[in-house]
Amino acid sequence: MPQKIGFLLLGIFLFSFWGCKEIKESPLPMEFQLLDYPCDDGTAIILKWKHYNAFPTREYQVLRGETPQELKQINIKRLQTSFVTPQYDATDNLKDQDYYVVMENNSNPPFLKLIKATAQNKDSLIEVGEKVLFLEREVSPPDYDKLQLQVVQGDYYLLPEKNEEITKPDIIRQKGVLQKSPDGSFQISPGIGNLEIALEKRPDEIEFLKNTEIVRLMEPHIQGYLLKYGKKISGFITSNTRYSMSSIDIEYVDTGELESGKTYYYKLLGINKDNSIVESPLLSLEPQDNHPEAPYIDYCLYDPSQKKIFVSWFSPDNDLEKYSIFLTDPLDSFCVRGFLQGEFHSSWYRTAIPFQGAIEDAALYMITSDRGGQQSTTPLFLPEKFEMASLTLPPGLELVEPPNDQKGNVLSVRWDPPQLYMTYAIQDTAPPKIEFRLYPFEEKDFFLLQDTLNASFTLSQQPAESPEQLNMGKIRWVKESFPSEQENLSSKNLVITYDKAAHRGYIDRVLQKTGFVRVKLDNHKWLVDRNEIGYFKIKDLTPEIHQLTLQWLSSSGKPMPNPEALIKLDIDASIPMSYSTPIPDHYYEVFRFREDEKIEQAVRLDSLPSSSREYWDILDSSEYAYNYFLRVNSPSGGFIDSPVLGPLKSRNEIFDTNKASVFALMIVFVAIALFFFNRARKGHKFYIRPIAGIEHIDEALGRATEMGRPALFVLGLSTISDIATLAGLTVLGHVSRRAAKFNTRVLVPCCDPIVMLVAQESVKSACIEAGRPDSYREEDVFFITDDQFAYAAAVNGMMIRQKTATNLYMGMFYAEALLLAETGTRMGAIQIAGTDAVTQIPFFITTCDYTLIGEELYAASAYLSDDPIQVGSLKAQDFGKAIVVFLILLGIILMTFHLDWIYHIFTVITQ
Amino acid sequence: MFWKRQLPLAIAFIAGVVFAIQYFVPHRISQTIFEWYTDWAIIIATFGAILGFYSIVRLHSNKIRRKVPGWFYSVITLACMLSMVLGAIIGGQETGSFFSNMYNYVFVPISATMFSLLGFYIASASYRAFRARTAKATGLLLAAVIVMLGRVPLGQSISFWTKWNPNLPSLVDIANWIMDVPNMASKRAIALGVALGMMLVSLKIILGIERTYLGGGD
Questions:
Q1: In this complex, do A792 and B114 lie within 8 Å of one another by their Cβ atoms?
Q2: Count of structural domains within chain A
Q3: Burial A626-637 (b: 16+ CB within 10 A, else e)
């Protein structure tokens, strides 16, 4: 019987996916088209198509080939799917409404026209149209998937049914306080209050709501009403058809290894939710190396004080080689007489040209050249006089070769010490008591005007000029709510956050001395953020003016020398509000060029915000020496370049000084270990405390022998490179030797093939050493799978079927530890576990009879062997632990007295 | 003897010393050696997979041939394995393929089922661990109850004493303290011991004192 069930399951398993690649004729991805990428070198093609939300497609696969027969998948576009269970809204039922859909077939997809039936047109509508049963909005109505899908055009909205609330005023909510001026006008001023403004609806708005149909087509004259009151409809459902109108445009740019002038074929595969597949038509395109577009000149300004012409431009091309700027006279309209002022790398977008003459006689033009040798010229542009913003270079600018970079291919441009940027907020954690005030406006003619630019409102005695604007009716009343002055003031907190990124990138030992931040409130003691979490919180602030000081310290505790590293502020703790120190709006750009190149050939590497202090340049090659310069840009247009830094060549170091403390400790521990190995070799006897888990292994094997059942040995889930697995293999050798003597089988299921091989060798040798080579069975040490839970399932099944009497778990374990050990407990097996996985030790302790905790697993090999050197290694380990305990105690004492050098000694900086 | 003992021991010694030094050398050559070693590890692991495949086929075909009890499970195992291999070779691994469907809709749910069993196993293991038979077990039970309550919103709600004096710690605070101080201290103590133990085992392997990995006993 079980065999029959097994074959039945196998049959179901093998045939369950029969026919899963069925290709349906429709719906196809709509409006699939290929476009040549503009202004490129002929190595990119744009794919565009339309996806209707009603399509059951969950992803699109893009196929490309050089012939129609050899198409390969190059990209997958997954569509977002909602994880919320859709709830169909009963208001979407249109059965009681007499609406009919009629198609206008003069476009593709056809336009859907929705007509309300009347006594006059009903008969003709029944003949040419279909009655609408449901409408679709965000969710689809029930059983929609049984209907035929029809994609249509249309923009319809569902409006609320007519009710008594049509004439109720609209409520606008706004932050701020209402202030009355002496002349009788009102103003909304910034503040901590909340305003509710009740607005009367305009007569035409009430008229629209009273007389409108519940489904309306979008038209310009009612657009505002539809957006305010309506809900967008994505489709209509009739008895046979689902008409869908909602769609998104999908675009994919293929830039993968295309060649200009070669024909490429593309096809889309739409994978539906039921795994059926739809195909698009096959399209082809030959990408072209396009002629470059002349750059758009952003500005051309002449600063008389600097005697320079600043030019800024923008180019959409992505295969440009260089820009050339020519100076000529304003009459050279054909741009042929100019003198070359400079040729700039394609990554540049602004430059400055020295100019000495009369600016009225100067004109410029630019020529762009792409990699294919094609050129474009701009029209002539004339410089305008303009006084540029004065900018200064950051102090301390330098180019360094940072030590200890892993490949010796890094150069670093860095500048001044860190600067503090902070935000502080007074937060009231207790719920505020709210007071209300009502201002009746019925007697006054006040209107609400919306300032769309600032997204704010003003009160005016004149109505809005544009009548189609909504929410602009007459004000009926204004309700103001504000926190009471009687609130619980003791619950106020001060929260300070500061910009840790201001010293980002400073990763070598010299610059790590930028240290940490401290903060002081009034004359209280300093609070120090040693862990650099960028956050302080001071509880229970009294409601008065406090003096706040924030300071950046070096790691030795000295204040940083630059004034920007100290902030002093008076803060009013009676008002909950937040404040930020201003951050300069300039930004940096870093340029790099080789020693043998001109400065104009420099590559613009990156743009950095004003809070940056370093650019870490990872070079492709460390063969050349490089020059760098920094450009400080003002958003208003000007810039200033630093002198050239360099040339400098990156170099490889022999020793990573950041890891010096690790190296020193390693040498100490190795020396201790060698000392104890030597003592052991000379015959010194060491005492080892008994480890219960190891001592009871024989007892556990004896039990298996008595019961005539096999023992199970699990080596964990890790590979042979894991020390825990090696320790487990040592115990396995011992266990196999004993088991061979007792003539007991040991099953060793492995999850790594290499571990299996080593385990086989280990068990085989143990059997030979025990004088029972015949007891070795190769099939008892076998591979199951390297998947965690499949392995756990297989081993659990083995425990249950073979009723193992003894289970030993020695090695590295993860979440499967409890699954294995708990099953063993239920089967009544005696269990011994040993692991260095800290998170799994509690599970083994609760389920196993004996557990080797952490290092005891490593001690097992020494304990089980008679080798004195192995025992000596345990003593070395104990001595090492004594050193660590001493260092911890020393660290506690020194850090208590603020002597934090010990902390930095043991800090390993990784990159 | 040379091939089975001395050569592997020499390789282990040289590789052990080289990679111990490599950790401290930030030179390009040092990084290249490390990357080269990583590539080789991947290649060897790939050949290991072939060994694993061979082991499975041999084990289960023996079981089928001998008609050992439950041999039909071996038929299912081999059939599943072969169908996945052939499915991937013939139908590819793209979304919607046989291989992908089997993985996503059969294998992943079954793995998730195994993982979800862990919840029930934790409950039964906890029940056994928390039986207050001794003073230590009672302490464990108390700590566990506090941590469990402190991890759910109920812990904050029933900390009624914080309403009398907000400076008193709530159950959440006590649970956090248990996790961050005594629990963390013991975890770090184990981790320190493990680290030293690993270091010494590594040293024993480099010096040839520990030879278990050669598959021949101690």
A1: yes
A2: 5
A3: bbbbbbbbbeeb
**Beta strand pairing status for A434-440 and A475-483?**
antiparallel
Tell me which residue range forms the domain holding B100. 92-129
Nearest to A652 among B28, B106, B205 (CB): B28
> Side chain identity at B174, as an amino acid letter?
I
Distance, in Å, from the CA atom of A407 to the CA atom of B133, rounded to the nearest integer, reads: 60
Mark which residues 255-314 of A lie under 8 Å from B by CB: 271, 275, 277
List pLDDT tens digits, range A162-200: 776 777 888 888 888 888 777 777 778 777 778 888 888
Q: Which of chain A's residues have a Cβ under 8 Å away from the Cβ of B100?
A: none
- Look-up of token digits 């300032």: A451
Asked whether residue A22 carries a pLDDT value surpassing 50, the answer given is no
Is the CB of residue A909 less than 8 Å away from at least one CB of chain B? Answer: no
In chain B, the number of structural domains is 3
Report, as an integer, the average pLDDT of A718-743. Answer: 90
A36 touches chain B (CB under 8 A): no
Q: Are residues A403 and A516 in the same domain?
A: no
Condensed to tens digits (0 to 9), the pLDDT of residues A285-333 reads 999 888 888 899 999 999 988 899 999 999 888 788 899 999 999 999 8
Question: What is the extent of the structural domain holding A81?
Answer: 26-159+212-290
If asked whether residues B139 and B217 sit together in one domain, one would say yes
End of a domain among A233, A255, A290? A290
Does the residue A494 lie in any domain?
yes
CATH of the domain at A524: 2.60.40.10
Cβ partners under 8 Å of residue B207, min gap 6: A677, B13
A320 near A299, Cβ under 8 Å? no
Nearest-Cα distance to chain A for B114, in Å, is 6
> Does one domain contain both A48 and A133?
yes
**Residue B51 and residue A6: Cβ atoms within 8 Å?**
no
CB nearest to A17's CB, from B102, B201, B210: B102
Q: Is residue A320 part of a domain?
A: yes
Residue A219 lies in a domain: yes
Mean of all residue pLDDT scores within chain A: 84
Same domain, yes or no, for B13 and B51? yes
Nearest to B194 among A10, A854, A861 (CB): A854
pLDDT of residue A151: 86
Which of B31, B128, B216 minimises the CB distance to A762?
B216
B1 in A contact zone (CB under 8 Å): no
Residues B1 and B75 reside in one and the same domain: yes
| Shared-domain flag, residues B205 and B180 | yes
Query: A808 Cβ partners below 8 Å, 6+ apart?
Result: A697, A700, A711, A712, A713, A714, A731, A735, A831, A832, A833
Q: Minimal Cα distance from B102: which residue of A?
A: A17
**DSSP for A722-747, written as a single string:** SHHHHHHHHHHHHHHHHHHHHT--EE
Q: Are residues A777 and A734 in the same domain?
A: yes
Contact residues, A window 751-810, toward B, CB-based 8 Å cutoff: 752-754, 756-762, 764-766, 769, 779, 782-784, 786-790, 792-793, 801
**Residue A341 sits in the same domain as residue A228:** no
Same domain, B152 and B110: no
Whole-number Å distance between alpha carbons of A381 and A362: 9
N residues, chain A: 911
What pLDDT is stored for residue A88 in this prediction? 61
End position of a domain, from candidates B18, B49, B84:
B84
Same domain, B167 and B182: yes
Q: State the pLDDT at residue A562.
A: 72
Sign of CA dihedral B29, B31, B36, B41: positive
A-chain residues within 8 Å CB-CB of B25?
653-656
Domain end point (choices A865, A881, A897): A865
Least confident of A174-188, A333-347, A390-404: A174-188
In a domain, A467, yes or no: no
